[in-house]
Amino acid sequence: MLHIIGIVISLFLSILLFTKQGKSRADLVLAFWLFLISLHLFCYYLLASDKIQEFPYFLGLEIAMPLLHGPFFFWYTTLLTGKTIHKSHRYFHFLPAALVYIALSRFFILSTAEKIFIYENNGVGYLGLLKIIHFAILPSGIAYIIMSLDLIGKHRKNISNLVSRLEKINLNWLRNLMIGMCMIWLSIMFGNDISTFTLVDLYILFIGYFGIKQVGLFSNTAIPLPINDFDMKFLGVSETTPLITARVKYQKSTIGDEYLSEIHTQVTQLMRQEKLFKDPELGLNELAERLNIHPNALSQVINTIENKNFYDYINELRIEEFKRMLMRAENQKFTLLALAYEAGFNSKTSFNRNFKKKTGFSPTAYLKQQKIHLKATI
To answer: What one-character-per-residue DSSP string does 81-96 give?
Structure first.
């Protein structure tokens, strides 16, 4: 029963994505992947329930499918993290599965009785090929998980160079998909077909439940925030998140030290005089626009002179402002959270995490150390 539910839900989600208005390339890749999963589950269901004779044309289709899931997930991850894969390289990832189906071409033209005979005799006549496929599946899955993890890590680092808060821009959706993929491949390595396909069914239920909760994923709700061929809505961005119009990429400095120093002085003065860091939504592009410089130059200044990414730089300024406010007697009637909001934070979690990262103390422990008594704490 669980397999049937998994088949129906994966097919239904695939149709939702195919028929979605304004669908992105990531939508299409996810739609094809969900269709592949539904087909794979259906083939397993036919074999597990001994109903394969009713659908003999599906015999053999499932053999190379495990070699397709890794490439589809990796392709989906590249689109969500703004990376690009050259068209020829993109199809190269699907070459192993294509070669398997070519090698099985003779099997597909056999009669139904011959196919069933081969299946009932554990693949007689194709044992060598099946062993090669079996040994290729495990390293393939592991390799694509590692490559996807690397993409996610690099993307999170890039995001930290663009925004001063990460609460609305996160990779929870991809992270959770990654955890599910890891569990499935662990089952492939140490479990059996029953445990593996049961996990796949649960994985589909997870995609359906959390995908529907994810803003705009399966609905036609348009959130026009494209950044170089990837859509921030898949990363948990709300409809109020400001558009990021530029990405920061540079390999070596092409800006002279004197100019870097001049920009740094301007940034420091602007922050001291106008305290722009108090804006919870402050981003790299907004600050660069105020200074009338390119975002790449500003990012390079912060990275090289401050030795921080944009996210840490702005939040450390907020922490210093918070500490200054604590020392004023007139502010001691407020709560910790009220002062944190005034300094530019807009979530308790972000404030506590950044404060401890900067000072080594929790906010309440810092108050005790400084012997400061507020009206109330968080």
So the answer is: TT----HHHHHHTTHH
SS3 283: strand
Tokens (6 digits) for 148: 């996807």
Quote the longest CA-to-CA distance of the chain. 89
Q: Render the burial of 16-31: b for 16+ CB within 10 Å, e for the rest.
A: bbeebeebbebbebbb
What pTM did the predictor assign?
0.62
Q: Please give the backbone phi and psi of residue 367, each rounded to the nearest 5 degrees, phi first.
A: -60, -45
Q: Is residue 291 scored above 80 in pLDDT?
A: yes
pLDDT, position 32: 94
Judge contact between 36 and 70, C-beta under 8 A: no
pLDDT given for residue 215 in this prediction: 46
Q: Which residue has the higher pLDDT, 336 or 234?
A: 336
Q: Which amino acid is at 242?
A: P
For the chain, give the percent of residues with pLDDT over 90: 21
The C-alpha angle 359, 363, 368, rounded to 5 degrees, equals 100
Scanning the chain, the segments in alpha helix (DSSP H) are 2-18, 25-48, 66-80, 87-92, 95-103, 105-108, 112-120, 127-160, 172-190, 193-213, 257-274, 284-291, 295-304, 310-326, 336-343, 348-359, 363-370
The pLDDT assigned to 40 comes to 93
Beta-carbon contacts of 268 under 8 Å, excluding residues fewer than 6 positions away, are none
